[in-house]
Specification:
single chain, 179 residues, two-stranded antiparallel sheet, two-stranded antiparallel ribbon, 7 helices, 53% helix
Length: 179
């Protein structure tokens, strides 16, 4: 095994030798391609998660391997989600076999193109994450007045409606803050 990091010195004492090897860089990359996070890497290498963070700080190659693997995995998932949201076409081969009375077997192969319909769940997920401003479950509106409201222009009925709306909003705000 080839060690790439120096033992950490603590005062006059030298710490325990790191089990880190060059081979772990490639393994971390491969695991990151599969979606592994730091806690998964720690479990695989049989170390604590803090050790993974230390290795990432002390070995730029190890850190880059993890980042590269995660970036590629994320890009692949993004592409798959996009294809599900948009719909796509697949080509399938259908094979049929027929036994003739003479004992001969006839095999027919035909290629079929199938259109996979867009997936509504994928569309919703994409829009909620990519266009939060338009598709979030909860949209926030700024209802603060930029200038004082001149109530003289409103009728008594309109003033009552405004008071009711303001009290309702105040009650919603106070009950939300009390919970």
């Amino acid at each position: 095994m080839v060690r790439t990091t120096k033992p950490i010195k603590r005062g006059n004492k030298v710490g325990r030798k790191s089990p880190f090897t060059e081979e772990m860089i490639y393994q971390a990359y491969q695991l990151s391609l599969l979606g592994a996070e730091n806690k998964d890497l720690a479990r695989f290498f049989r170390v604590c998660e803090a050790t993974i963070w230390n290795w990432r700080q002390h070995s730029p190659e190890f850190d880059e391997a993890i980042k590269d693997g995660k970036d590629i995995a994320d890009a692949n998932v993004t592409e798959s989600l996009y294809r599900r949201a948009m719909g796509y076409e697949v080509t399938e081969e259908h094979i049929t076999k027929r036994n003739l009375p003479e004992g001969e077997i006839i095999t027919n192969t035909r290629t079929v193109k199938k259109q996979i319909a867009p997936d509504v769940t994928a569309i919703i997920f994409w829009l909620k994450n990519r266009r939060k401003d338009l598709w979030a479950d909860i949209q926030k509106f700024d209802l603060t007045l930029k200038a004082p409201l001149d109530l003289s222009q409103f009728s008594e009925e309109e003033k009552q409606i405004l008071r009711g709306a303001a009290l309702k909003r105040l009650n919603q705000f106070t009950s939300a803050n009390n919970n």
